[in-house]
Amino acid sequence: MIRTLPRNIAEQVEIIAEHARREGLDFFPVIYEMLTAEQMSQVAAYGGFPQRYPHWRFGMEYERLRKQQRYGLSKIYEMVINTDPCYAYLLEDNTMTDHKTVIAHVYGHCDFFKNNIWFSRTNRKMIDEMANHATRIRRYVDRFGLDKVEQFIDTCLALDNLIDPHSLFMRRESVRPPKPINQSAAPQLTRFPAKRYMEQWINPPGELAAERERHEQKTEQFEGRFPASPVRDVMLFLLENAPLPDWQADVLSLIREEAYYFAPQGQTKIMNEGWASYWHSTLMTGYILRDEEVVTYCDHHSGTLATQPGRLNPYKIGIELFRDIEHRWNTGRYGKEYDECDDMAARRAWGKDKAPKDRVVGRGSPGREKIYEVRRVHNDLTFIDEFLTPEFVEDQKLYHYRYDPATGRMVVVNRDFAKIKQQMLFMLTNHMQPYIYVADGNHANRGELLLVHKHNGVDLDIRYAQETLRQIHVIWKRPVHVQARIDDTLMLFTFDGEQSSQQRLDEAVYDI
Amino acid sequence: MLLQIDKDHGRFRQIVRGRIRKDLRKFLTRGELVGREGKHLVSIPVSGIDTPHFRYGDNNDAGVGSGDGKSGDKLGQDGEGIGPGGTEEGRHILEVDISLDELADILGEELELPRIEPKGRHNLTSEKDRYSSIRQSGPESLRHFKRTFRRALRRYIMTGAYDPQNPSIIFERSDKVYRSWKTIKNPQSNAVIIYMMDVSGSMGAEQKEIVRLKAFWIDAWLRRNYDGIESRYIVHDVRAAEVDRETFYHLREDGGTRISSAYRLARELIERDYPGAEWNVYLFHFSDGDNSSESDSRECCKLLKEHLLPQINEFGYCQVASAYGSGNFINVIHEHLAREPKVVTARVNSKDDIYDGIKAFFAQGR
User: Fold this and answer.
1) Torsion B25-B30-B31-B33 (CA) sign
2) Which residues of chain B neighbour A57 with C-beta distances below 8 Å?
3) Are B309 and B333 in contact (CB under 8 A)?
4) Which of A2, A292, A471, B269 gets the most CB atoms within 10 Å of its CB?
5) What residues of A are in contact with residue B94 (Cβ under 8 Å)?
6) How far apart are CA B123 and CA A330, in angstroms?
7) What HEC string does chain B produce?
8) Mean pLDDT of A371-383
9) Are residues B282 and B314 both part of a single domain?
10) How would residue A289 be classed by pLDDT, with cut points 50, 70 and 90?
């Protein structure tokens, strides 16, 4: 049931959209819907969609949200989903000022969805797709029974972080079993076209020989290996190679599809929220806000950007970083000369002396151009990697903390730039999910599945890993292993269908 | 908006109930549950509901924050876990609110307790009228002016008869709305639980904890079976006294034990406040069974047999193991009252026996 927007809000939508367009935002058409707080919790539990497949997890989320909302712990002001047209939900009992802020915020998100490259491969008709998924699952429920289907969904959900978000943008080698290699065929070497007299310089024989050798080594190493090289998209590997009945394969594939749909939102949390906050702030303070609304707006805005100790608020980091970039590009604080300048005072004062009187800020300024570019090509990881500066860390009072075994508490360690940046990048890499690869689908030549955890500083949670193995076994139906480094010891965890076991490894079963 | 969420939510509650059922034995012995009861809700930590994932383990213990503070400053309040920003998931234990009635149902299902057939009139209720509703007809004295005015105004505007220059509104019959009453039924309690506890020197903190837990579950089950129920508390050593709930659980006395004093007081209470066939009376006695003299024990049995048992639904005696004393009282009861169907006894040596103790008390559905 779509309720038409009250006229005064519909008017504001038009006005704000017009301002946003004039500022250069480029978005899909947006359809707004008004929801009560209760309905908002319902939609939020479904991840913003009106229809999802039946599963208790949504009920759990709903209960949590509803409780938070009832007890006033948190309030969902707004929600917007990445589709074309974009759907956005407004909370009915908000004040007019809140509505305006939210509408401005939504256009920021919507522009981001449309233009950020990481979203470019997402299905913009996801509302329909989700509804189709729901129908498919319901059909299976009718046929095989709720318990059976639900259990299998649980199993699939245990794997839904084992995907490869980058795979949408490149062609990976096939994960299918290698075909018997035609012995007579020579390896394809990289050979550039060249006139004969240039041949030995453009395609040096030494280089070709080295490549042939590498190739041979590789074929030797991977001969008979399956998959030929480690696969990050564990879900896809299972989908293509596990002995699943059709309906289970279908369930697995649709959960994988949804995981891929949501992946870019995990990859761009800071940027997305930062961008939307930047624009609600710019539009509201620049054009829309009326005198009597200032206090309400400030209250709302500062609530959104508030930071708790020990946490990073993506809204706050995002908006500040975008503003910082805009400012830096407006004052010429970039490029080799600036990057190599060690003098903090000089950096602080950079560009002030050179600033021409008629320097543009805002629309059309180099800073604005730059942030538009940034929102197009970056994700959180590259965003922080590229644009976090010591000045920013200092201004934002960032610190690095860690667990102190003596007190059993988290304590501030220091405000060292390198360390903070490293920690932030770590937190954003694969959005805090461990890297798990399929290394061997025919482990020990017994059709067992070998997964490998690529260790980058932090161990796997053993108990969870063993539980997850159990779930993977449901799909693979042969023993499954995961090789992981725990406390600097290589371990192999196994679930063989009846019990979990673990053993120490003297050397890696598989080097990743 | 028509959403499926209620179905999913129902399914989730169902799973939670199943999980609680499975772990009921554990919950029965968990002290912390008892303190948490709100008015109608208990929040229960339920483990193992979320789906497992490969995830980082415990040495993932650093992060970046922002704000004031210097090296070595602690973050957050005591006992508050702070995780690295942006990771919300992964709490393996979920707190679920569940109503006491639901909990009692689960208890009943799992322990296979029969429903209690109350004696006396079933639904003793008192009725009260409250003016909380609206009707189209009624006496003028109850006319709801504001609503009536609003309806009239609406009618004027709709028919185009409203004139802002001369905004006079005249009510018509169809505009008039009257206050009206609803009859509220308040269940009148017709059941009472009388708890008696031995507070002599030999009852330690551990024993009291068991009593507390057991009384909580007795309460939960009986409350499920009766619309309204009262509780009375009696403590005794050599003498007996009626106390409030708080005192009952926290009072610590020294000295000997004369159980008959408590039974005598219970008899007085029943005869004074809960007479006749209307009341469902439950009598529970918790003691370590170390009475002062054989003769007093015999006296107790006589009191029970002649005065108390005819008036009550059930007498439950729960003997808590204690390091001191003979614990002989339970044997005396067995000896003298073996043939009384209303007498149930249970020995509770540790928290693990509470489960069977509850079952013993209510297995007969009385």
Assistant:
1) negative
2) 8, 12, 51
3) no
4) A471
5) 60
6) 79
7) CCCCHHHHHHHHHHHHHHHHHHCHHHHHCCHHHHHCCCCCEEEEEEECCCCCCCCECCCCCEEEEECCCCCCCECCCCCCCCCCCCCCCCCCEEEEEEEHHHHHHHHHHHHCCCCCCCCCCCCCEEEEEEEEEEECCCCHHHECHHHHHHHHHHHHHHHCCCCCCCCCCCCCHHHCCEEEEEEEEEECCCEEEEEEEECCCCCCHHHHHHHHHHHHHHHHHHHHHCCCEEEEEEEECCCEEEECHHHHHHCCCCCCCCHHHHHHHHHHHHHHHCCCCCCEEEEEEEECCCCCCHHHHHHHHHHHHHHHHHHCCEEEEEEECCCCCCCCHHHHHHHHHCCCCCEEEEEECCHHHHHHHHHHHHCCCC
8) 94
9) yes
10) very high
- pLDDT, tens digit (0-9, with 9 covering 90-100), for B21-47: 887 777 777 666 665 555 667 777 776
- Whether B85 is covered by a domain: the verdict is no
- Asked if residue B14 lies in contact with residue A425, where contact means CB atoms within 8 angstroms, the answer is no
Which domain does B354 fall in, by range? Answer: 191-362
The answer to whether residue B73 neighbours chain A at the CB level (below 8 Å) is: yes
pLDDT the model gives residue A187: 62
CB neighbour list of residue B215: distance below 8 Å, 6 or more residues apart: B195, B284, B286
Q: In what order do the strands lie in the sheet with B314-320?
A: B240-243, B229-236, B191-198, B280-287, B314-320, B343-348
Residue type, A174: S
ipTM here: 0.80
CATH code: domain of residue B315:
3.40.50.410
Residues of A in contact with B38 (CB under 8 A): none
| Cβ–Cβ below 8 Å for A59 and B8 | yes
Domain boundaries, chain A: 7-116+276-299, 309-352+359-428, 433-504
B55 at A interface, C-beta within 8 A: yes
% residues pLDDT > 90 (chain A)? 50
For residue B25, how far is the Cα from the chain centroid?
Answer: 18
- Chain length of chain B: 366
Dig out the tokens for A134 from the structure: 């729901």
The strand pair at A448-454 and B229-236 is best described as unpaired
Task: Answer whether residue A263 shows pLDDT above 50.
Answer: yes
In a domain, B56, yes or no: no
Domain assignment present for B221: yes
